[in-house]
């Protein structure tokens, strides 16, 4: 059996020295193992090929899908790939890998997604090993509308280099239209992998029991079982959505509310689409026809002009703007072109690289029509104009039903985005498509299921759960509660819900109170921010009942948070630390360690957007 020596924890080294030595030995022994394994080539345990570790950080599945695609493609280039989420770095035996591809999106404000956060904490810490034995390549997914574009991928790339790993190709970056950029990056990667100087490695040696031979020796696991084929590609997906029917629609806020939250019931009958609670539904909207007309008029177009769609298909300009291109948020390339054609001094100044934050400020609430109005009368041909636009993207919504309670249906809880800016009414593309223009049983609603990989009920029905979901964050928790009731799970359920006013904004009040009465909910704590002078939010409620919260944690409760990422999730995270400090009598550091352990054990899961 192949053994890789590792320095025992009791050896007289600092953690950093130990980590460096372990990385170094792993590299040496990987080569030795190749030789040894090569000698056993006839053994059924070994297949030839370069082992390639493909790891992803992905919140909503795009980076994961790409990672799996790269893994499949790598096999045509002589590799045998294993695919893991980045947080699974221990199971992936990262320190023993020789080639690594990282595909990661960016969330929050330039942060790694949830299923890569623990990996980043580890990689960025002193515990991270030297990685001289590793060749790597990083591809980032992001959205140029965010200030820190592809920020997580920059962090991974820089840190891997700092730890001594060898970069195979420059880091790639993909905007929301990621297909072409991802393909181009992959096309550059395969030759670099082929030319890599290292000898071919051997893979798929089965995982052995972790029998220890002599002090400090562990089993060599060249490759553990890959997850590559775990998720079969469904028939309908992001690029081929199912035309569903809306079968019910109601407003959840009472008249008088400042909010407009809707409950939608969508029939999936005939699609073969399946989902589990915790998954999201992707919805592909069309643009508001009034906005299309405004834009055509602003640019001096008729709408009948022939243009190419995003896939190179022939279509009319009207159809392209209605169905295929994003026509609200202005792409920087379009602003640049307007500024250059009109010689607008204000815009030209804002486009200077050192004025990025002023440009972001200027863009707040402005859409493409506003850019034309404030930039001056720039003239484009229809083909030129659509050349600046990005492809219209689907939006994701946490499914708020359990398939066991509502077979063949997916329910959504959607806040209609409406605001006024620069003297015009603005509407969220998808939320207002659903709220204003989808006619029951008539308008096709293109949908797909986005499988969640990190937001799941505990496997054990007896485990208590605490759910924190203000506003539309309630969505997956309605699904969790329905599911637990349907399967007769006996674990206690505690929900924190919050919104502006109890009288108008208590979403699903009757359902929740009925669940409380029947015991499906053990505790229900609400925070209505505008019902009193001082603002009260869910995080304040957590602190008020810190002792009870702590007891649930100590009883093994899983904690779930859903909803606003920018403020709520951060405040709730801070409150969780404070609860542990206060009620658990811990220091700041101990509370942070406690939260980290919750995360590692999948007991603290977040679905925030
Ligand atoms: C995994 C996941 C789950 C989600 N689940 C849900 C859910 O259950 N329910 C739900 O409602 N949403 C959910 N969302 C959010 C949802 O996907 C959409 O982002 C949301 O509906 C807005 O999309 P839209 O097309 O209506 O608006 P868009 O056309 O995308 O417009 C939104 C943008 O408008 C701008 N904007 C908004 N308000 C203002 C303002 N006052 N002033 C200036 N600019 C403003 C902001 O730039 C904002 O990003 C989820 C997102 C993810 C990623
Ligand atoms: C709430 C939220 C925050 C985001 N933050 C960033 C960001 O800071 N930088 C960036 O480049 N992209 C950001 N994005 C865009 C995502 O990285 C992008 O949509 C990516 O394709 C998602 O890939 P995934 O499905 O693998 O998670 C954000 C998206 C959302 C919804």
Summarize the structure.
With 609 residues, the chain is of the alpha/beta class. It is built from 20 helices and 25 strands. The strands form seven sheets. Strands 3, 4, 5, 6, 7 and 8 form a six-stranded parallel β-sheet that branches. Strands 16-13-20-11-12-17 form a six-stranded antiparallel β-sheet, with helices on one face. A five-stranded parallel β-sheet has the order 23-22-21-24-25, with helices on both faces.
| Uncertain stretches of 5 or more adjacent residues | 31-47, 197-233
Fraction in helix: 25-40%
Largest β sheet strand count, sense and barrel closure: 6 strands, parallel
Shape: globular
Q: Round the Cα radius of gyration to an integer and report it.
A: 26 Å
Walk me through what this model shows.
By secondary structure, the chain is α/β, with parallel strands linked by helices. The protein has 4 domains: 217 residues, Flavodoxin domain (Rossmann fold), CATH 3.40.50; 101 residues, Translation factors (Elongation Factor Tu (Ef-tu), domain 3), CATH 2.40.30.10; 100 residues, NADPH-cytochrome p450 Reductase, Chain A, domain 3; 144 residues, Rossmann fold. It is built from 20 helices and 25 strands. Strands 3, 4, 5, 6, 7 and 8 form a 6-stranded parallel sheet that branches. A 6-stranded antiparallel sheet has the order 16-13-20-11-12-17, covered by helices on one side. Strands 23-22-21-24-25 form a 5-stranded parallel sheet, sandwiched between helices. Helix 17 packs parallel to helix 19. The longest helix is centred in the first third of the chain and has 25 residues. The chain is globular, with a radius of gyration of 26 Å. About 9% of the residues have low confidence. The site of flavin-adenine dinucleotide has 24 residues, from strand 16, strand 17, strand 18 and helix 13.
